[in-house]
């Protein structure tokens, strides 16, 4: 269609011109401007990268270059998420997609092997541990540099179909972590683009479970930002898209996040149904081999999702019960998760009319996170401060607020 439009004198679309230039740059190993190619009416700079999802794989990789360069210094940190239409288009394309044909390029100057893939997974695992322990503020910039300068060149190299599938899977895991750390830092527009691009890489890897996990992350972000309808749609897409290609542990994760979204809109019956289904899948979690990236989805994680649900449904007794279990079960290496569930426990205790117990629990949460750099955790704390403000005269609440001020000052000084 594009060629026909050019022959009819319609000109080339700016984004298509950028794709053509990028493809020729890679092939010729030298920089060509749009003017060099005769695209005189096209802008001198490529447009802001979009999702790149519904493009061919070479076009998507070309667009990924621009997406990987996005950072808060671009003035996008406070921007809104991608438009609903772009998100729906990407999700629908993934749901009906088929795997890409990953063919070896004999002309490529570098051939990728399984050792390269193993090294990438090791790097991603290291950054994942750092994220769980210290939050997205630690390591995000270094991970972005690694993805841009190490991962993307590998995706444009030569590889066998077997290596290519593993390579794109490892790259998708790395990019979703980059998106998650951006989200945890509070850079939502950038995180949104990273995650939607991850969905495209998961398609290339023919990994439906990983793609469903990306949709779960997008639902998590939308729910956090108060975009409940989008959160529900994304969660349901993850459940439907993950069926048949996911382990029971994966399905438990997807359904738990559907329950989270339903709880936000006060759909008690729907949330209960999703939690019940998640629990049933989790009972079979050890019956299949799981990918390493979902190892964090243990009983503590599931219970932690449920305590969020009951808190949002204003069911204080159940919320306290599940939050206490989550605190007791969560491995200390997941410091951010422990902080979250303690804050949910504090909110649940407040729902039950126990302000002093709530303030004590929240103080433990703040003191326990140490050097955590997470905009999400800070928001949990600020929300609780607002909720407990009617009891500001209580000595325990005053001590909590003082501990928060001291913790923030200490973080700035370190």
| Helical proportion, percent range | 55-70%
N- to C-terminal separation?
A: 57 Å
| Major sheet characteristics | none
Q: Which overall shape is indicated by the principal axes computed on the Cα atoms?
A: globular
- C-alpha Rg (nearest Å): 23 Å
Poorly predicted residue ranges: 1-10, 40-48
Order of helices and strands: HHHHHHHHHHHHHHHHHH
Structure description:
This protein is mainly alpha-helical. Among the domains are: 1-46, no CATH class; 87-100 and 109-206, no CATH class; 208-297, Serine Threonine Protein Phosphatase 5, Tetratricopeptide repeat (Alpha Horseshoe). It contains 18 helices and no strands. It has helices spanning 2-7, 14-28, 57-68, 84-95, 114-134, 140-155, 161-185, 188-204, 208-224, 228-242, 248-264, 268-283, 299-312, 316-329, 335-351, 355-368, 375-387, 395-413. The chain is globular. It starts with a helix and ends with a helix. The model is unreliable at 1-10 and 40-48 (pLDDT under 50).
Quick recap of the structure?
Among the domains are: 1-46, no CATH class; 87-100 and 109-206, no CATH class; 208-297, Serine Threonine Protein Phosphatase 5, Tetratricopeptide repeat (Alpha Horseshoe), CATH 1.25.40. It has helices at 2-7, 14-28, 57-68, 84-95, 114-134, 140-155, 161-185, 188-204, 208-224, 228-242, 248-264, 268-283, 299-312, 316-329, 335-351, 355-368, 375-387, 395-413. 68% of the residues lie in helices and 0% in strands.
Topology, element by element:
Layout lengths: L1 H6 L6 H15 L28 H12 L15 H12 L18 H21 L5 H16 L5 H25 L2 H17 L3 H17 L3 H15 L5 H17 L3 H16 L15 H14 L3 H14 L5 H17 L3 H14 L6 H13 L7 H19 L1
């Amino acid at each position: 269609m594009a060629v026909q439009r050019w022959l009819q004198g319609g000109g080339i679309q700016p984004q298509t011109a950028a794709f053509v230039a990028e493809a020729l740059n890679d092939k010729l190993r030298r920089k060509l401007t749009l003017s060099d190619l005769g695209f005189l009416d096209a802008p001198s700079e490529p447009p802001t990268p979009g999702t790149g999802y519904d493009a061919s794989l070479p076009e998507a990789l070309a667009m990924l270059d621009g997406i990987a360069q996005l950072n808060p210094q671009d003035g996008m940190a406070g921007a809104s998420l991608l438009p609903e239409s772009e998100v729906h288009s990407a999700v629908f394309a993934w749901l009906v997609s088929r795997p890409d044909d990953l063919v070896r390029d004999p002309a490529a100057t570098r051939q990728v092997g399984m050792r390269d893939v193993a090294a990438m997974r090791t790097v991603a695992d290291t950054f994942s541990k750092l994220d769980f322990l210290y939050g997205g503020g630690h390591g995000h910039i270094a991970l972005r540099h690694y993805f841009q300068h190490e991962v993307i060149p590998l995706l444009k190299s030569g590889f066998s179909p077997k290596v290519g599938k593993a390579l794109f899977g490892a790259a998708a895991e790395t990019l979703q972590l980059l998106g998650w750390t951006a989200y945890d830092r509070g850079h939502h527009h950038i995180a949104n683009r990273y995650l939607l691009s991850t969905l495209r890489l998961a398609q290339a890897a023919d990994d439906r479970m990983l793609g469903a996990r990306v949709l779960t992350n997008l639902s998590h972000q939308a729910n956090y930002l108060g975009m409940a309808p989008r959160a529900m749609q994304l969660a349901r897409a993850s459940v439907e898209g993950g069926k048949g290609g996911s382990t029971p542990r994966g399905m438990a994760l997807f359904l738990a996040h559907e329950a989270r979204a339903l709880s936000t809109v006060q759909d008690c019956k729907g949330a209960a149904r999703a939690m019940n289904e998640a629990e049933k899948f989790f009972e079979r979690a050890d019956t299949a081999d799981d990918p390493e990236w979902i190892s964090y989805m243990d009983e503590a994680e599931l219970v932690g999702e449920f305590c969020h649900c009951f808190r949002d449904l204003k069911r204080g007794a159940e919320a306290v019960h599940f939050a206490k279990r989550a605190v007791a079960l969560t491995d200390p290496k997941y410091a951010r998760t422990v902080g979250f569930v303690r804050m949910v426990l504090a909110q649940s205790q407040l729902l039950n009319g126990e302000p002093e117990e709530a303030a004590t629990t929240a103080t433990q949460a703040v003191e326990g996170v140490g050097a955590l750099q997470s905009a999400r955790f800070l928001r949990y704390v600020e929300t609780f401060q607002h909720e407990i403000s009617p009891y500001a005269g209580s000595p325990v609440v005053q001590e909590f607020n003082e501990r928060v001020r001291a913790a923030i000052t200490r973080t700035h000084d370190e």
